[in-house]
Amino acid sequence: MGVLGWVTLLPLFGAILVMLVPREEEAIHRGLGLLTSIVTFCVSLMIVTGFDAGQAGFQMEVNQSWIAPLGIHFHLGVDGISLWLVMLTTFMVPLTLLSPQAIGIRNIRVREFTALMLILETGMVGAFLALDLFVFYVFWELMLIPMYFIIGVWGGERRLYASIKFVIYTLVGSLLMLVAILYLYAQWHAATGSYSLDYAQLSHLTLPEGPQMLCFAAFALAFAIKVPIFPLHTWLPDAHVEAPTGGSVILAAVLLKFGTYGFLRYALPMFPLAAATAAPLIAVLAVIGIVYGALMAYVQDDAKKLVAYSSVSHLGFVVLGILTLNPTGVQGAIYQMLSHGISTGGLFFAVGLLYDRRHTRRLGDFGGLWAKTPVFAALFLVIILASVGLPGLCGFVGEFLVLIGTFTANKTWAVEHMSGFFPAPKLMGAISASAVILAAMYLLTMYQKLMFGPLDKPENKAVRDIHGRETWVFAIVVAAALVMGLAPQPILSRSEKSVEAFVAGYRDRLQESKRDPDAPPHVYPALAAAAPPPAPPAVPVPTPAPVPEGIAP
Amino acid sequence: MTFNLRLIPLLPFLGAAILMLFGRKWSRDTVVAVAAGAIAGSCLVAFDAFFTALPLAEPNGLHDTVGTWISAGPLKIDLAFRLDGLSGLLCLIITFIGFLIHIYSSGYMEHDPDYPRFFAYLNLFCGSMLVLVLGDSLPVMFIGWEGVGLCSYLLIGFWYTETANADAGKKAFIVNRIGDLGFLIGMFLLYQFAGSLNISEITTVASTGSALMQPLWGSTVAFWAALFLFVGATGKSAQIPLYIWLPDAMAGPTPVSALIHAATMVTAGVYMVARMHAVYLLAPAALAIVTAIGALTALFAAVIGFAQNDFKKVLAYSTVSQLGFMFVGVGTGNFEGGIFHLYTHAFFKAGLFLCAGSVMHAMSGSGDIRIMGGLRKKLPWTHAVFFVCWLAICGIVFSGFLSKDSIIAGAMSTEHLGDWAWVGQAAGYVLSLAALGTAFYMSRLYFLVFTGETRASDEIKHHIHESPGSMVGPLVVLAIGAALAGFTGLPGGLFEHPTWNLLNDELSPVLGPEMEVSRLTEVGVMVGATLFALLGIGVAWVFYGGGYREPSRKFAAAVPKLVKLVQDKFRIDELYQFLFVRPIKRIGNFIYFFVDRILIDKIMVGVPVALVDLFGRLSRLVQGSGDGQRYMAIFALGAAVMVFLGTQPDLFGSLKVSVTGRTVEVDARRGGKPGGRALEYSFDFDGDGKPEVEGASSTARHDYASPGSYTVHVRIKDPRWGTSNSLEQKVEVP
Amino acid sequence: MPTTYYLILSFFLFLIGTAGVLLRRNALIVLMGIELQLNGGNLALIAFARELGDLKGHVLAFLIIALAAAEAAVGLAILVGLFRGRQTVNLDEITLMKR
After folding, report:
1. Before A231, cis peptide (omega within 30)?
2. I need a surface site. Which of A195, B140, B547, B709 has the fewest CB within 10 A?
3. Whole-structure pTM value
């Protein structure tokens, strides 16, 4: 099954095991869940050790025929872009299961919570690794269901409203995406005569301009909702506020990344012409989102909502970085995804901990907690600063690279079609960079209201400092933030080749699309081996050609 | 030449980490030993590097590359350090004064329960500051730049239980961040046009190529890059318009004010401009702006200093003012002058602040100069030190004398400003006025605190005592520095002995040769400035000699509104509050309510939801009862209709007709696409009821004998179901 | 015998079943009606299988028999549950789908 298959399916097996243990044995559920996720993390480390940084294409592929008559394969593979996102997932899930607050203050149904978390992990890892659009879609929807239950069962007072809002928003996008996937399936058949949903093949399908626009719109909408890009973001604060701590952490740290990952993996490479046309609009929306999210965060009184809006702002950077379409910006976007996962995940852990202690999230109810919780305060401060983007911590690297990429966007966009299209890169860069001020404003204000000032409220005097497992959770997050800020190179160097290939491949395909925008669907660049016939299960399917690296037309 | 420079910042960082992890369990002596030991070690390494290794190194100094920090696409940033005359001098100042202040703090903070935290922050600050000066590229410098900002935030808000302190810390951080935005943009511009972020490489590009002289936004790249970098400097070094945080920053412990907000961190902006001098020299307009801002700040802050009643606030405005002097120095291209003043200022201002600490220590923590007075006898050591530093800052004989003169003389005779040379000269006159002001408010401070009778309550009077040795020792060392540091920079133009200018020996390889000033200007400025200083002291004596005298009371009574305005710092804080802070909050609240809640949630989402709801209600009217059997009946009916429609051949098809000459070709396939079903087609072209063509083919052609208008009837049968369907279309045959 | 006869029989079986499902009030009888419908369908499948000489029809018929058994089990369980809860199996009184 390959190491990727194991990483994907281990949590699912763990979930089944957890469900087999009787309901009363909560300690066993927790232990088993944690053990499974830690084992999964250890196995996923093998992906890193086995990863060849010098190679741009997919590695360690698993390719089993699944539904042969329809040409569907269980196809997984990892490249420099998905590698670290998978690692982020397998890193955050054990942390969530380790945290005593993950389940929220309604501490019920530990067994189901643990199992759902593990199923969610399978969905997330699978969707990052999927190289077949059908498999991708299955895992994509598989993530939705556990999250729905996690918000809807363990959430706060308005949990039903929030969970249904979350599901409807996400479903609207993903169903449109499903339609587009089916359309691509039909077009591939029309162009080649065979059936396939393989990513490596479909990503070479060049559609005429009109259908490209429609398909891009469908994919982009699904991803834009997930990111979320302004103005599709209003589900996020509600979902975050109502979700239990563990749900918020995973939602912020991993689930939101599927939006931006989707742009990188699917929406841009598959529909280059449409993407180039829509890029200015999305870039402008991203910049609006950066400032808007920050401004919204600044006026919140609910700590969790504040952090949720800060996610809108931070993920705007990711979208902007992707749309710069130069290696610096895209690398920055990927790094920002990871660092946002760590820092915002940490922030949600911290807010969840305070909620657990005090059963309130109103900033005005706190104050002066430093005196009672010095260890927590120090670790929390580091996480805050990582989120503010202080150099030396993880948040800086991503933002810095994205901003540099944005500033130099015109210079590196070789295709003349686009150079005029990215509107005023310096202005956009400057506006986005103003988030460094706003981020300091809202996060430090929050920190001050929580930790500084006089300890004048009697409820706050009884707050305990972190201890035991809680300390471990925060210490690990802080360590990750420090390491990622001081030594980003091990991560950047492994994604470098794939990012360069992504940028070069995008340009190639854009030129091909522009050559004749009305050409009927065709495969470009021609695949080395034509589409594999729907092979019987026993015969191994020929490996699809790797993503092209700057092949000139 | 390489040297293990990384040790210099690493030692304080290690100290900070150790203290944060274990400090709480250790005794106070251990904590001080670790903290001061770390900075002392770093100081020794810095001295070794500066005095032993640097003279042997090539002109661009000592290097140490730790490794690649960030590399993405064409961008590559090394975590590398460089020590040359400029950064080396700063290193010496930071580590040496830092060490003294560690010692001083061990006495000053004796009774504070958060002792280890304080020293951890202090060490962290020293490490960050050293990274700032040693960093070989702008991003590495930025690590230190932000790091010192963070430590400043933490130390200002050190006594966090007071909301005002926490607010001051936050204000400092946010105002600094506004400057950082400028720094970042300047950095990006340099990267885009110079192709590198490495300072040496930028310097090379700036001094050789024309890359930075390209036009941009109506001026040159160099101008904008220099200007944006200077915005960063105004934030860090508290210049107009971003100076507002520094006076508030006095909320922190006094040693912190001495180290961070006087001697080191706030001078980072001056250092940065000097470091990037090659870029600035390309843009005389930017230099002129630096000069103008510096001169205005120097005068403006000095005026505010006239009316402050808090010991540390006076010193804070004095710092802002002195930083303005330094910016005029670097802004007129007189980089040595600016750095020289930075260097002497570090000694006398740190000394002044530590005296303030000692006085406040004696006055039971109060810093209100209105209740002080007559402390000369009660605090002899503190008084002696303050006296020396006072003369130094007023520019009489001691170190401030030469450095201030060097700046004013440089401004008068600069040639770097091109068309804006008049700005330099104007700045020279403004600075002379500011120097007069400086002499006045510093003398006011001196007279009110140390001369006359003590105005405090008996309770406080009773407790007045000289500070312990750990505090007095560093004071004395700083006083010696304040007295003598100036003589390392004897102006070459005056004595025609350039080698007497020791400082210039170190700086000129980095910053270019000392600015040429004619002897006449030099002497004129010296005499003039001394007279001005004496005048300032004299006026202060008239007003405040030995306590509040008659003229000062009369003056305050004559123009109470003016005094109040100056006391309220011209209400600039309130103006900013009104212009920026409150609008941002209001706009945020407005948008949150109207855009997020109403426009998006209620209208953009709510309207479709309401439509779906309406549709659901309408269709429920039809289904109605909740009776499962009725649902099933409707379902069966629907299924029957579907089956019926599905068995009709090409129900919604149309004919595709093409006419060539008199030949008409008809295609009856729906949409012209191959269907899956086997159908039978019969074509009747002339409308006589008898089909001309029959068969499984969906196409047929017919030649008309004569032109005219005809109707084509096509009957499609599905033999499997026995169903059929008719299509017809009119044809015009020419 | 011609296949048409089987088909007519299957049609009437299905029709009777449908009538039972739609018209009877007793849920138990409705379930029986469903069984009749399924059997009607089964008969048609078998008839076509014989006509075309294709075993797939048999396979499908077996599948449906198994499915019918499962459906009957679940349906009866629901009925028992309903009866316990509401003391009735009269469909007119069970209008839970209308809130």
Report:
1. yes
2. B709
3. 0.84
